[in-house]
Automatic annotation (TrEMBL):
Membrane-crossing segments per the record: none
GO molecular function: FAD binding; monooxygenase activity
Name assigned to this protein: FAD-binding protein
A Pfam match: FAD_binding_3
Entry keywords, A to Z: Monooxygenase, Oxidoreductase
Organism: Nonomuraea diastatica
Origin: domain of life: Bacteria
Amino acid sequence: MKAIIVGGGIGGLTAAVAFHQRGWQVEVLERAPEFTEVGAGLVVQPNGLRALDTLGLGDPLRAKGLSDPLPGIRHKSGGWLTRIDVDDLKRRFGQWVTEHRADLVDLLRAGVPEDSLRPGTEVRQVRTDGTVIHNNGTSTGDLVVGADGVRSVTRRSIWPHAPAPRYVGYTTWRLIAPPQPIEGHRETWGSGERFGYQPLPDGRVYCYMIVNAPAGSRGDLTDLRERFADWHDPIPALLNSVPEDAVVQHDSYELPNLSTYVAGKIALLGDAAHAMTPNLGQGACQALEDAVTLATVVDTLGVPAGLEAYDHARRPRTQMIVRRSRQFGTTAHWTSATLTALRDVVLPRLPESFIDRSLAPAYTWTI
């Protein structure tokens, strides 16, 4: 049996490892000239680590360094808006790991035979019979996995009339700052803007900034330094510690609900199926869940029945996570002075269980 995997990011490579471990021949088609990840840090939450455990890759990632979940939300002045019991979260759900995205890609890539990797391959069309047409010719498989991101060629080929991704109104900058003392994972809310930071295993600091902006607008490090200059320490110091070329920016898109993730011999996973806002940090974790679930059910049940089982298992859960992620970030991006003032008064008075109910369903997955 052969699986053609379109896209060599985290979701695609996880699928390749999962199918390869089950004895399938795999072929991974990646548009970029090499298999790597640009960008910055990545938090692998307990559900993502459990998915990696099914491939024997959870412990190698944990060995690089553990991290804590977000302990709450702070105001830009430094005061706490919400608090979460970190020890209780880890006791109930397991460990968190923060790592550079490229390091996870390298770990996954090492689990795929080198001759199965096809960098520099631009897919042009996918057909329901398992045929993939690309710039280097044609590939055919018993299964095609569309793991090619929010602008998925696979999705557009099979579902040409499906709703297009929609811009959610904010853009995200990410960077890695040099090693410096910080107190752990933090996220801070202002009015229509957020700043988060967390340590990486090597002492560097992963930072992200999410700001209301028109689609396609661009800002540089100078703009960010000015925007966050009066926020609590160490935010200004983090921004002042990096060079001008350290920042990457991506607009945030969400994919409207699809009626199915499968058709013929085709399955979508990750952002190609359910692109979501970054508010819960679940994008990569949901792709990990998708990949190991798909390999398990298809290898166990066969392609037609396995794809039906995959869609039944994954579509309700991932679309729920998309919805919760959107809702969780809404109040952070209010710009009304009245609403933000009300938020800053009400949030500290809410019980921890209110935030817990929003987050817990993401962590509880098991295959």
